[in-house]
Structure prediction request, 361 residues.
Amino acid sequence: MKKILIIGPFPEPTTGVSLANRVFYENLPKENFKVDVINTSYTRFDESLGSFSFHKILFYLKMNFSIFKVFNNDTIYLTPGQTFFGVVKYTLYILLAKLLKKEIIVHVHGNYLGKEYETLKGLKKKIFKKLLRCSSKGIVLSESLKDNMTRFLPENQIFSVYNFVEDYLFVDSSLIKEKLENKTPRIIFLSNLMDEKGILYLLQALLDLEREGFEYEAKIAGNIDPKNKARIENYFKQLKKTEYCGIVSGNDKKSLLLWGNIFILPTYYSMEGQPISILEGMATANLILTTEHSGIPDIFSDRINGFYVDKKSSESIKNKIKYSSLSFKEANEMRYTNYCTAKDNYRVGSFIDSIIEVIKA
Prediction:
């Protein structure tokens, strides 16, 4: 029985990376693997990913007490951050695994690693490159994101593994057809309420729609970034048709996704990869409004899965919501296409099988 050590963040908080790690951990034993974990989740949520703080340094120093687990496993599977600090905090694990000739697989959940490398200079750049070159194999979220690893590994050692939708979110097609009968725009946002996820532009668009007398309902869910808390809460006070649901998971998340019919993620997040939340929106037959950003074009096509909106534009979001409402038949065709596409292509089983293929390659 092959032994795998997963080193990376796990919920809580829930992010695309931590969710993927949890799903991988829960499913690997079913495939005859023995799995161990080192959870690197930093519990204080804020938008300043990759930044230094005394609390963070202390947290990650304590984390290194689990390094003995490297000895007991055959494969070390890492999901590091995409900044210098996000990689360097794994230094002891990487160097020990390399010394012991363990297989090291680095799974990059984003499109910033390559950009970070290009901005680094001098010793920091050399350290960054040296650590990532210790990898045996690399995984990215889609073909267009492979360039993030080509500086560190030969191309035949870089694999693309698409994200997934958890099985419990899929419902019978008869329930989807019932859902599609509702003509009122039901807008949902399901992500961390960070500036770069476009939340402020969405809230402004909703406020503009209310002022124009446009009929809609909206529900916003996710962790509020403390830096924007006052501004976001001020919007919620003004918005009469928008409900803030807090952090949702499990059946609460499923209910939210099935309630909605327009899923909006106007992201320009610098570390964005391939948002699982977009796939979840598709799986529950929502029209998708999102940006042409990072790995999103690998899973989304304009006017097939929904509509692109311009980055940092509340006006663009507003206009696409109105157009979706006026073009109800066209929008519903896209909603059903999304359901079928996700059901056929973005399953947990495929995600697990793809990573196992990488391990065996």
User: Anything to note?
Assistant: The mean pLDDT is 95. The first strand starts at residue 2 and ends at 8.
